[in-house]
Design brief:
The protein is α+β, with helices and mostly antiparallel strands. It has helices spanning about 15-20, 25-30, 75-85, 100-110, 120-125; strands spanning about 1-5, 35-40, 45-55, 55-65, 90-95, 110-115, 130, 135, 140-145.
Length: about 150
């Protein structure tokens, strides 16, 4: 398993990016400014984009290929980010929908609830977004000390 930084042609991984953020114009808001990593294990299995937001490192997008979810690739990506940026940032945060799959995943990775932005998804996306049968409305932020 190898994790490497992607500096060019980040849109090559659009299929993976869209798994975590369903609207391409929203991805465009952070993709060029962010640092992107891909996890390869006999092919690309996961990707992650991080970006500094007000002195805090934020995971803007993280996704694993659906065929390989549940095999530890997402957790490996988070552990890589923690190790790489420990000492450079005090905190790692992630914003996500209040869904039955993502929030428990982040909690298992040691994140704790921080705050939420009301109506983020309904105000910023052109169509309703559902995850695990749940309509996403608020952006839920979770944080973890590095």
């Amino acid at each position: 398993m190898v994790i490497r930084e992607i500096k060019e042609n980040k849109k090559k991984y659009l299929d993976l990016l869209l798994l975590a953020d369903e609207q391409e114009d929203m991805i465009d808001r952070y993709l060029d400014k962010g640092t992107m990593y891909v996890l390869e294990d006999d092919g690309v299995k996961a990707q992650c984009v991080v970006l500094e937001e007000n002195g805090i490192l934020e995971i803007k997008n993280i996704a694993s290929d659906p065929q390989f979810q549940g095999r530890g690739y997402g957790r490996a990506m988070i552990e890589f980010i923690e190790d790489k940026y420990r000492g450079k940032y005090r905190q790692l945060q992630v914003g996500t929908g209040d869904s039955p799959s993502t929030v428990p995943f982040y909690k298992k990775c040691g994140f704790v609830p921080s705050h939420r932005i009301k109506n983020f998804f309904t105000d910023n996306y052109s169509r309703p977004i559902y995850d695990g049968g749940v309509l996403l409305t608020d952006m839920v932020y979770l944080k973890k000390d590095l």
